Amino acid sequence: MGKEYKVFCCTHIDTECFNDPLYTLLHTGADYDGKKYKNMLADNTGDNISNKKDKFDGLVTGLYWIWKNTNYEITGICSYRGYMSYDGKKPIGLNETKELFENKQIDFIAARAEVPMSIYATTKKYEAEIFARNMHNPFEYLREAVEYVDPAYLNAFDHVMYKGSILNCRHTFITRRKYFALYCEWIFNVMTKYDQILKEKHYQFSGYRFYGGIIEIMERVWIINNPINVLELPIIMITEQNVGYIN
């Protein structure tokens, strides 16, 4: 029997995802939204953090649900509008994904974007209220959390945050189950410790989906600190009208 493949397209509205057997819809933040959609999985079953959408973002509550409640051999996550593309014309499909994992021995397919400055400088410029409100660099506390969970990640963290300009963005990736589980265990351990530190410091959270943005940055830290075969692809955005790139 061949490997089982499934990528979950996260949504908060009643919609459709790209028509390919690789994809299935997942209503994320279902508890928080208080809505039910027919013929769609929801992230408020089993072991879940569905009611924490306001803090973590729906893609993150979905990530947790996939980790705790599914066991596909090759699995991943994206939004119902944003997909990785192998040919630059349409979202990557089941046949292409099988070719990459089974014949080219890829371990992790990640969305890639570049910013003009370091991640730290970009965040400070465009999310200035995070720093101004608390008069403290929130990434210093994040570094403390990383060191507590596993100090082997500190070099990768420092590079990504203060030197790097590449982002593995939008919580969009496909990987082998082994690496999916390892990544989720690491990132949720880091975020649990980070949450504890911020509360102890009486840090004022910067509104809706604060942790979602932090986790998006941290994916690259995990990737460059693990010796796996990674393929990075651009994201294309699909609407009813057109397909467009996000670089």
UniProtKB/TrEMBL annotation:
<feature type="domain" description="DUF4422">
    <location>
        <begin position="6"/>
        <end position="226"/>
    </location>
</feature>
<protein>
    <submittedName>
        <fullName>DUF4422 domain-containing protein</fullName>
    </submittedName>
</protein>
<dbReference type="Pfam" id="PF14393">
    <property type="entry name" value="DUF4422"/>
</dbReference>
<dbReference type="InterPro" id="IPR025536">
    <property type="entry name" value="DUF4422"/>
</dbReference>
